[in-house]
Amino acid sequence: MITKDHIRRLVEGHISGTGIFPVDVRLSSTGRITVLIDRMDGVTIDDCAMLSRQISNDLGEEAGNYELNVSSPGLDMPLLVPQQFIKNEGRMVDVVTNEGERFKGIMMNVTAGGFDLETEKKRGKEIAGTVRSFNFEDVKSVKVSISFK
Q1: What pLDDT is recorded for position 60?
Q2: What φ, ψ does residue 40 adopt, rounded to 5°?
Q3: What is the domain partition of the chain in residue ranges?
Q4: Is 49 within 8 Å of 119 (Cβ atoms)?
Q5: Residue 125: which residues within 8 A CB-CB, separation 6 or more?
Q6: What's the whole-model pTM score?
Q7: 82-144 belongs to which CATH class?
Q8: Which residues contact 137 (CB under 8 A, 6 or more apart)?
Q9: What is the pLDDT of residue 74?
Q10: CA 85 to chain centre
Q11: With contact defined as beta carbons under 8 Å apart, do 69 and 54 qualify?
Q12: What is residue 129's predicted lDDT score, i.e. its pLDDT?
């Protein structure tokens, strides 16, 4: 039987030393395996295709019962792993805390435990230039803010 842990171990074995890091592995009840990967300078279609072939080869006949999709996270997906936070340091992000509070600003000073957010403009009670610190465990989601100005 294919499990998330099994797929994650396969992924980690193949990407070791490449600069690629795993973001998420999802298994659906409909037989879809989704592997999300990233790299500080971005992953290519070739990276995704290569990893997909390697995982399919590792799974052998088991893969026939599943649809495998290897891709980079979409722009609309929340940041999930520490490397993504580091990669997006200095960018505008939308933060939702576990209490439901929403903040928007420039993410900076990413550490193992959290990050700072400098608000860009007055937003509710926040004033431009205000810096707030967030611990990862207190944050529900962080998404890169997409602007089409």
Answers
A1: 84
A2: -55, -35
A3: 4-71, 82-144
A4: no
A5: none
A6: 0.84
A7: mainly beta
A8: none
A9: 87
A10: 8
A11: no
A12: 74
In the sheet with 102-108, reading across from the earlier edge strand, the strands are 131-135, 114-119, 102-108, 92-97, 139-144
pLDDT in tens, 84-110: 999 999 999 999 999 999 999 999 999
Evaluate if residue 126 carries a pLDDT over 70: no
What is the helix (H) or strand (E) element at residue 35, kind and residue range? strand 32-39
pLDDT in tens, 17-71: 999 999 999 999 888 999 999 999 999 999 999 999 999 999 887 767 789 999 9
28: exposed, middle or buried (C-beta count within 10 Å: 0-12, 13-18, 19+)? exposed
Q: How far apart are CA 141 and CA 79, in angstroms?
A: 7
The yes-or-no verdict on residue 79 having pLDDT over 70 is yes
CATH topology of domain 4-71: GMP Synthetase; Chain A, domain 3 (3.30.300)
Token pair of 125, please?
């009670």
What single-letter amino acid sits at 143? K
